[in-house]
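Slide 14.
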Amino acid sequence: MTGWRSFERESKTHRSAVLVGGIAGLALGAGASVVVDGATAPAQAGQTSEITLAQTKATDLRAQRAIKQGTFAWNLVAKYLAEPGQRIGARKPKNVRQDAGVGGGLPTETIADGAINSAKVADGGIVGQDIAGGAVGRQALSQEVARALPRWIVKVNNDMGVPVTRQSSPTISMSRLATGTYLTDFGEDVTACSWTATPSIDSGVPAARAARTMPNPGGDPQKVLTETSNGPGFLVESGVTVQMVC
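Slide 15: predicted structure.
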């Protein structure tokens, strides 16, 4: 009897231990699950919503660099965008030097050769008042364009003596050889060009009715001979315009 009771007590103790162990195991399992969920949830939230101090500083530095670069660029070009004589300055952030200037457009040395061409100039974009007197001369034109332009010289009266008062270039000159006979020096080889002459005078009527040109009898390829004649064909002193086109 005593042995049976002892066995029963041991059995109950064993069952209780198993029950407690099972409950503890379930609790531990549940607790582990909670711990894992609790540990992962804050990490996921931090990845999507938190901004670190380093990120804030990096963003601030980028913004400062952008402001400095923009201010430097403005200071560099502002003086060229203003009207001539207008004083230019730009607001500056801390530690950025302010370069003020005076307006007046881009200086020649800042424009690369070939940077401005006909494709970049709108039709009618450049007119007479945009070009200073003497700014564009024959020397500024290409050789092909310059040679295609007419060159001329004018004897403006019917008198003898110094015959010339106007010419398309100071390199062109005219001299009087005899009555109604003039030699024009164009300052370049004109043997491949064409020449014409027309009686003309600034005021009054030319004494000549006709004028003709011919190669220089002396053989100089830069010179053209011109003769002016009246109605019957006699050489007379007269005003005349001599033109040459190549």
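Speaker note: The first helix runs from residue 2 to 49.
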